[in-house]
Amino acid sequence: MKTLYLIRHAKAEDHSLLKNDFNRNIISKGKERAIRIAHELRDELHVDEQTLVISSSANRAKQTADIFCEILGYPIDQIQETKDIYEAHFTDILAVINSVPDTIDKLVIFGHNPGLSNLTNYLSHAEVNLATSNVAILTLTEDLNFAELSGGTADLKNTIQ
């Protein structure tokens, strides 16, 4: 059974005219929360060669991915980055997921709201609003692969808050 982990970036600097949104960094409070939640996730997610991590290339998402991957034991240099997840509609994030090869069993996505919450709700027909560093864990139904994932074809197994 394939499992999808959707993780919203850690709490970041406030919006400012002095810094482009894409370049905003996580703050210490966000880092602390990300570390705590990553430790909780480690009990559920065991990284192996069928695990893939994809992150938005925005600073705050990549910084969050680095924290989680260090704790989970996923090589940071193997994180795939894409701007396609940044400020993306949930269907654009789904397109990234749909391109994942069938050899992957555990897919971890680091991104932003509202896209990740909307995607979780679309895939599982749940009502979730992911706060910063929260994780939605979804299992694909009926032995589907990531290329076949679409509306209502996943079950929300858990959220880590």
> Under the CATH scheme, which class?
Alpha Beta
**Tertiary shape:** globular
Number of strands: 6
In angstroms, what separates the terminal alpha carbons?
A: 24 Å
Order of helix and strand elements from N to C terminus = EHEHEHEHEE
Q: Profile the largest sheet.
A: 6 strands, mixed
Estimate what percentage of residues fall within beta strands.
15-25%
- Rg to the nearest angstrom? 14 Å
Instruction: Report the uncertain regions.
Output: none
- What's the number of structural domains? 1
Tell me the name of the CATH homologous superfamily.
Phosphoglycerate mutase-like
Looking across the biggest beta sheet, what order are the strands in? Answer: 3-2-4-1-5-6
Number of discrete helical segments: 4
Could you explain the architecture of this structure?
The chain has helices at 28-42, 59-72, 90-98, 115-124; strands spanning 3-8, 51-56, 80-82, 106-111, 135-140, 154-160. By secondary structure, it is an alpha/beta fold. It has a single domain (3-13, 22-160), classed as Phosphoglycerate mutase-like (Rossmann fold, 3-Layer(aba) Sandwich). The chain has a 6-stranded mixed β-sheet with strand order 3-2-4-1-5-6, with helices on both faces. The protein is globular. The two termini are 24 Å apart. Pfam families: His_Phos_1. This is Phosphohistidine phosphatase.
